[in-house]
Design brief:
CATH architecture of the largest domain: 3-Layer(aba) Sandwich
Strand content: 15-25%
CATH class of the largest domain: Alpha Beta
Number of helices: 25
Bound molecules: alpha-D-glucopyranose, magnesium ion
Strand order of the largest sheet: 18-17-16-15-14-23-24-25
Number of domains: 4
Number of strands: 25
């Protein structure tokens, strides 16, 4: 949300919509159900339905993400403007973002935050079984989503160089030239140096009641009670250094606890061993470990430590980022931290402290002493930290670098192919035509049709729906010098492509892949007379096609019946008394078109559909506005008399133009009622 606000505050940015999941659940705040929340001028938090209404942990969201993407498309239609950039944060958003980016023709930017391969390795190192990791974290799906996202992304924004080396480099789609390291910012209004006359706070009282000489410099550590945070070695370093013990107190803020015995196992183990160390070195009176603190106490703790000329320490075994280091630096507190990714970058930028080896307790003690002993140096580090954070780790700074990177991207043609955005979210009606025998056949009629669409005062989308495959579709469109349509439904509705990018709709393929067994189907079909498999390029993953001899072949009903007896399922489509197509039962030109309507948010009445033969039948029926051109093939005769199917006397594109006039399709759209009257 902080990033969203910072981006929206920039003059180059018109608007930022932050899309997340809508949740209705008594266990979470009612605000999570709010569909739209304004964050700042030009910045909105949008919550979209995604699967069940209740709260779900992120690992079980995967099956619902397609629905999130669909709702995002509807939302974009509602806004009426296709975004210029989609930035996905984390693997699940990456999955959605990759889909949206290819559907809309908009560049994708990705920030992984943490990546699955690294997580899997760490869990595995800790002794977790691969099967457990898989069940609990759905890690394979996450990694695959990350691979796909990286493959699709035009740019990746990482927080540190180390993240690039240790996390992204592990992926098949690692392309370092696409990665930009732009560290995140912190909310600087929360973290600032102490004022001269600071007030006593309740957290100060809570800390000081542990200490014999609270005014001494304060070594502050704030970290979860987690093995990896290495707090035990910090206590050892302190306990074993008489000098350190004499010059400073140690304050450890490790989460909140009520009853130690009821803490979760990992945290309890860490805490109990800390207490034992404190007891063992007899550190009573010089180490504080408050039971409770509130989020608003954190800035006060940094300030208190700064006021007492102390130091912030983060001795974690590894530290990819280290937000607390930046917060303490912003508060004017010098830092001592593990020599690892995040701290290295921070100290390089800020020059406000020392790096340590987290396993070397003497080294830790020495560094802490050095940081506090020399007063001139302490003041230098204190102010270096404040300046450095403002320069390198503020959200306005981040937003500025981000815009610069995007601008550069837009200028280099190789990395950002000048995409033509998908128009579908902005059209309010759509003409979908069969190609052979409908759209093509009469040049003059076609010219007239194209002119009428072009000069329409409404945004009209244009699509074709054909039995041809995509290559032969593109070929014939080119032959007739037609522009590339917004949508191409090909192979009798078993494939869908969008726009000039010719982006395949993969969700559609996945959706129709149901009870489809092409090998068995082909086998059974061999028993029928009068059928001959068409050439190889007419056979597609989701379409089996035959040329037929109408005199010899059995009826479509007989074929369907025979298939069902074998427990085989297919949609059997007969056209022009010459072709027979088998498709998955969820595929057809008609279903593909309805899917388009749902996906892109257009009601059936906003579609005018034109055809001439049997493979157009399904898309002509239903609530869409149908037009059968004059040169139609006899199998469509049975559609006569339906209110929403207009039979034109004119042939080819002339018939389409006639149908458009009949429905006033480019005007106010007249929808005939069941008696055939228009309303
Ligand atoms: C097109 C396709 C063919 C299909 C026919 C009917 O001609 O190339 O494979 O059988 O349409 O749908
Ligand atoms: Mg046709």
């Amino acid at each position: 949300m902080e990033l969203t606000r910072a981006l929206a505050a920039r003059g180059e940015v018109g608007r930022v919509d932050l899309l997340t999941r809508q949740i209705f659940d008594r266990k979470v705040d009612a605000g999570y159900a709010e569909p739209n929340e304004s964050l700042a001028t030009g910045a909105n938090l949008i919550r979209l339905p995604c699967g069940p209404r209740r709260y779900l942990r992120k690992e079980v969201l995967w099956p619902h993400l397609d629905s999130f993407a669909d709702h995002a498309l509807q939302y974009i239609r509602q806004v009426g403007r296709v975004p210029d950039i989609i930035h996905a944060h984390y693997a699940d958003a990456g999955y959605v973002g990759a889909q949206l980016s290819s559907l809309l023709g908009v560049p994708l930017i990705f920030t992984g935050h943490s990546l699955g391969r690294d997580k899997m390795r760490r869990l595995h190192d800790r002794g977790a079984k691969i099967s457990t990791i898989e069940n609990q974290y759905k890690i394979r799906q996450r990694i695959e989503a990350e691979e796909q996202t990286l493959e699709n992304a035009t740019m990746i924004v990482a927080s540190t160089q180390q993240e690039v080396r240790d996390q992204y480099a592990d992926y098949d789609n690692y392309q370092p030239e696409r990665i930009n390291v732009i560290p995140p910012g912190i909310d600087l209004s929360r973290f600032c140096p102490p004022r001269k006359k600071a007030q006593r706070s309740s957290i100060q009282a809570n800390v000081d009641r542990f200490l014999k000489a609270p005014e001494k410099p304060m070594i502050l550590a704030i970290a979860r009670a987690d093995e990896r945070k290495n707090l035990g070695n910090l206590v050892k370093a302190y306990g074993e250094s008489p000098k350190l013990r004499s010059i400073a107190n140690l304050v450890i803020v490790a989460g909140n606890r009520d009853v130690v015995a009821r803490m979760d196992k990992g945290a309890r183990k860490v805490l109990v061993s800390l207490l034992a160390l404190i007891d063992g070195y007899d550190l009573y009176g010089s180490v504080a470990y408050p039971k409770h603190h509130q989020p608003e106490d954190i800035p006060l703790l940094y300030q208190l430590a700064a006021q007492r000329r102390g130091v912030f320490v983060n001795p974690a075994l590894t530290e990819p980022f280290g937000l607390t280091l930046i917060e303490s630096a912003a508060s004017g507190l010098p830092i001592v931290a593990t020599n690892d990714g995040g701290p290295t970058d921070i100290i390089r930028h800020c020059n406000n402290g020392l790096l340590i080896d987290p396993l070397d307790t003497h080294g830790i003690a020495d560094a802490l002493i050095t940081a506090m002993e020399d007063s001139a140096q302490w003041h230098r580090w204190s102010s270096n930290g404040v300046d450095g954070v403002h320069r390198h780790f503020s959200w306005p700074g981040h937003a500025k670098s981000y815009i610069k990177a995007i601008t550069k991207l837009a200028e280099t043609q190789e990395t950002l192919t000048p995409l033509r955005k998908n128009r579908l979210p902005t059209v309010d009606r759509m003409l979908v035509c069969d190609i052979d025998g409908t759209l093509l056949g009469d040049r003059l009629g076609l010219n007239q049709l194209l002119n009428e669409i072009r000069s329409s005062r409404h945004p009209v989308g244009f699509g074709v729906a054909t039995g041809r495959n995509i290559n032969s579709t593109l070929e014939v469109l080119d032959e007739w010098k037609l522009p590339i349509p917004d949508v191409m439904i090909t192979c009798v509705g078993s494939e869908i492509y969008y726009g000039e990018q010719i982006t395949k709709d993969k969700t559609w393929s996945r959706q129709i892949d149901y009870r489809w067994d092409p090998i068995a189907l082909r086998q059974i079909m061999k028993r029928f007379k009068g059928l001959k498999l068409q050439s190889r390029d007419s056979q597609r993953p989701y379409k089996i096609s035959y040329d037929v001899d109408p005199k010899k072949m059995p009826s479509v009903r007989e074929i369907v019946h025979a298939l069902r007896l074998q427990n085989l399922h297919a949609k059997v489509i007969y056209s022009h008394q010459a072709y027979l197509d088998l498709l998955p039962i969820r595929a057809s030109k008609g279903l593909a078109m309805r899917y388009l309507g749902m996906k892109w948010g257009l009601a059936p009445e906003r579609f005018l559909v034109a055809g001439d033969s049997g493979n157009d039948e399904e898309m002509l029926c239903g609530d869409t506005l149908g037009v059968v051109v004059g040169n139609y093939s006899p199998e469509l005769d049975r559609l006569r008399g339906r209110s929403r199917i207009f039979f034109s006397d004119n042939e080819y594109a002339n018939g389409i133009v006639d149908g458009m006039n009949y429905y006033d399709f480019l005007g106010d759209i007249q929808v005939p009622d069941d008696e055939g009257k228009t309303t």
